[in-house]
Amino acid sequence: MADKVLIYSRFPKTMMARFAERFELLDTGGKPALEVFSADELGGIRAMLTAGGSPLGADTMDLFPKLGAIVCYGTGYDGVDLTAAAARNIAVGHSPGANAASVADIAMTLMLATTRRILVADQYVRSGDWAGSKQSPMMRPQAGMPGRRIGVYGMGEIGRKIAARCAAFESEVGYFSRSKYDLPYQYFPTLEALADWCSVLMIAVRAGAETQHVVNADILGRLGEHGYVVNISRGSVIDERALVAALSDKTIAGAGLDVYEREPHAPDALTELPNVVFAPHIGGHTLESHVAMQNCVLANLTAFFAGEPLPYRVKSA
Amino acid sequence: MADKVLIYSRFPKTMMARFAERFELLDTGGKPALEVFSADELGGIRAMLTAGGSPLGADTMDLFPKLGAIVCYGTGYDGVDLTAAAARNIAVGHSPGANAASVADIAMTLMLATTRRILVADQYVRSGDWAGSKQSPMMRPQAGMPGRRIGVYGMGEIGRKIAARCAAFESEVGYFSRSKYDLPYQYFPTLEALADWCSVLMIAVRAGAETQHVVNADILGRLGEHGYVVNISRGSVIDERALVAALSDKTIAGAGLDVYEREPHAPDALTELPNVVFAPHIGGHTLESHVAMQNCVLANLTAFFAGEPLPYRVKSA
To answer: In chain A, what residues touch B168 (CB-CB under 8 Å)?
Structure first.
């Protein structure tokens, strides 16, 4: 009989296909598990698959007395209460780096689309305004990439890939992270100093309680009227109200966002703005990235059911 | 008295401001010169400023018996009949490389926006479809950049910058151009071979009679159903009818276009398509790029009126 895996978050069926070949999946579709399955069924669950951003605390863990492994699909595990998991001897796994290139690439896509105003440009051509020689203030020349100062907040695998790509665009790259690394980019000891220096802030920091709303009105103000912010990390890192205000009153020039505080909801006050490019959390959403993330999930689940340590275990868990 | 310069193409006044400080500008606004100025006024013109893509043949040159210099704003000079200019002892100048980074960056922007479907993504968030969990077939995972085969057609300054940027995205880069260079990219001896190999064709070739419609139905067919074409060179390089057909019947997956056969007109059959990202010929349209191009224009005009050779002279002219 196949080992059982509870699917805790809402995932498209296509993303679960490879797991279904190997395990018996109890798919909650993202609903509370007790609404979909009986307490008896849940009692036998030893492993679950979750999206790293889905809140998963002690109360939930206690619904599954035999739970031994929480496997996150993707790099993030910010929704999982690691302390509660450790106290219950539950291993937490993820897919480190599997989606780093894909996420770095959506960061670049959002930065370029925002700074070169590609939504406005596309609409200017499609509407016939270009053919009609209508003036478009939004289409005035903007600063380009060579010499632009790009600040990368967080220098993990995604941050490094963003930095390498930006350097190829002949931009200057600076970064702030907890540690200074042996990297060819200027290190700033605080986020404030980075924001003072750069005109584009790329948020690539691992999300958690200590990064909650650190990109606030003050940081946005330091980017200035020609400044941009791009977030591909987690919505929680930006104070979304402060962001709406900064974009509305032109404190900053624009933003590129793949993540939001309350996904899949992006506030109307945000989505009404013309100087933002939005994506529906598709950073890791490429074919290669999904294959790589699924490889990590399969390796974690297979090892767990074989009684071995998770090969891609969250380090601090 | 300031030297007179005829403005042959339609340019925004802001782009001419630095020239107006040094020269007396006779601005046609892009209209036939004789509609705006008397034959007598035109008879005294020794230098003109043009957009490289504007048709400028022998008949036009003969309206200006004293014409000694045609200065193109930008890198291109495909509209200028170089043979006719040489026969009349008219020097032709341009701004080589001044906009190369800016144009390469719009190529990258269009490629990323098209392959990651950023227009669809943005609309999916703005419309509330994401919040409503509506399915969107266009949002299915697509191939990303790592390992992607990018074919660069033309290896001048812009092509090289595109290639270097793509390499930083962990893509494989191949190219076709008249010459094979000592570059770390795979060389293909024909455009057909490059199209067979790559999934994204980046058109960065210098336009001219010999490149007219070389990207035709056959080349597009070789890119295949997962293939993309990005054009930042000139509209004339692509057979636009064949492109509309290939995009409509899904012979290829999508396109990113900054240039068109009859600018500023993009055909309705093209602009109705959802799998294309359009820009209104803004490749060189960044602040730094304009400053660099204007520097070349000023250097060319200053040298010409001082009786010296143009420092940025078109080589074949």
So the answer is: 164-165, 167-168
